[in-house]
Write a structure and sequence with these properties.
This protein is α+β, with helices and mostly antiparallel strands and about 230 residues long. The chain is about 50% helix and about 20% strand. The N and C termini lie far apart (about 120 Å).
Length: about 230
């Protein structure tokens, strides 16, 4: 074999070996970059877990949304309950105008002057007696000449006038009360009762039941400087 042929053979062999080495090196790189079978299973399991967690979170979102809506409804209901209680409290305190069936009582001095009429002039205690009898018969609201009577109201004689809630009033006295009309009237018109007592003194007394009576709310300011609410 000539040297030229030998060099050519060596060159071909070297080229072949180089190609084989390159292929082997590339194959090793691909193997290294591929995902092992057990790792693939782990990824599949992890993906499945994430999907389940995602479903669980969606359900929690729906549940929280439902609870939020219920909380909003509860807040609205609570607000309505508070407003209703406030309305009731205002009515019980007597600072709200109210209406309902009831009675009107009119008290007036005797129509003609006389010695007896001089001692029969209506006094503050007479108005208080009427108010107490009406309360005892279940009156829920009472007014005297347009002045609402509440727990702090003052009915006091002031000379020939009577002050009601610090405002001067004079006969005739129109007393309005809301409650059972018949019970309220019976409490005054019962035989030997307050109406008969006033008539014996010469005071003019008239009572009438009404299907609709409107009693105004207390018009003066309510302020407590010393009384404080007890907590608990």
């Amino acid at each position: 074999m000539s040297k030229r042929s030998m060099y050519l053979s060596i060159s071909v062999i070297t080229m072949i070996l180089g190609i084989m080495l390159a292929i082997q090196f590339r194959s090793n790189r691909l193997i290294e970059q591929s995902v092992p079978a057990d790792r693939a299973q782990e990824l599949v399991a992890e993906l499945s877990k994430l999907e389940k967690d995602n479903i669980k979170l969606d359900r929690e979102i729906e549940d929280l949304g439902y609870k939020l809506e219920q909380a909003k409804k509860g807040h609205s209901q609570a607000q309505e309950a508070i407003l209703d209680e406030l309305k009731k409290s205002r009515m019980m305190a007597g600072i709200t105008t109210v209406t309902g069936s009831g009675i009107e009582v009119m008290l007036d001095n005797p129509p003609s002057p006389s010695r007896r009429s001089a001692i029969s002039i209506i006094r503050d205690e007479d108005l208080l007696k009427v108010a107490n009898d009406l309360k005892g018969a279940g009156a829920e609201a009472i007014s005297v000449n347009g002045h609402r009577l509440i727990s702090t109201s003052e009915v006091r004689q002031a000379g020939s006038f009577i002050n009601v809630n610090l405002d001067r009033t004079e006969p005739p006295f129109h007393i309005l009360a809301i409650g059972s009309p018949e019970k309220l009237r019976s409490s005054l018109e019962i035989s030997g009762g307050l109406a008969d007592y006033f008539r014996d003194l010469g005071i003019v007394v008239k009572t009438q039941t009404l299907n609709s009576v409107t009693v105004p709310g207390y018009g003066n300011n309510l302020q407590y400087s010393y009384a404080k609410a007890v907590k608990g």
